[in-house]
Design brief:
This protein is mainly beta. It has one domain. It is built from two helices and seven strands. It has helices spanning 22-31, 94-97, and strands spanning 37-38, 43-44, 62-63, 81-88, 111-118, 121-126, 129-133. It has a three-stranded antiparallel β-sheet, with no helix packed on it. The protein has a two-stranded antiparallel ribbon with strand order 1-2. A two-stranded antiparallel ribbon has the order 6-7. The protein is globular, with a radius of gyration of 17 Å. The termini are far apart.
Length: 142
């Protein structure tokens, strides 16, 4: 069984620079322009540049635990799909996360699963497909 994803538009990746060692930040800035695909099977991408933000807006995914203090007013609540996403653990190393390495990957050390809100809503669905769209942009407050 195969899954197919079609995406058109800007795809932005965010890294928390406060939790990254300085040498990793320098490596990301140096190597990012050379990355032209993401994922095991290759989602082809084109690098357009980078920017540094002090805070992310609602168009980025966010851990569900961060939503506990969200406003209770219906229009201000973040909306989207909840999913368990695979993330780096506190002890993540390139050796452990490299799919070509024989190193053992340990849960909660090298990787962890985080319940995450993905800012998309189901737009249409049918046999064998689900079409998601970004909710009304007015819900995102910068």
């Amino acid at each position: 069984m195969r899954e197919f994803v079609h995406y058109q538009g800007d795809l932005r990746l965010a890294f928390d620079l406060q939790t990254c060692p300085a040498d990793l930040v320098a490596l990301l800035l140096r190597t990012a322009p050379a990355i032209n695909y993401l994922g095991k099977r290759g989602g082809f991408i084109q690098y357009l540049g980078y920017s540094q933000l002090s805070e992310l807006d609602g168009t980025y995914t966010q851990p569900a635990e961060d939503l506990a203090g969200s406003p209770s007013a219906e229009d201000d609540r973040p909306t989207g799909q909840r999913a368990m996403l695979d993330d780096f653990g506190a002890g993540a190393t390139f050796e452990a996360l490299n799919s070509f390495s024989s190193a053992e990957i340990r849960l909660d050390v090298h990787r962890k699963f985080v319940e995450t809100l993905i800012p998309l809503r189901v737009y249409n669905a049918g046999p064998g497909f689900v079409h998601y769209r970004v909710p009304d942009a007015r819900l995102y407050k910068a």
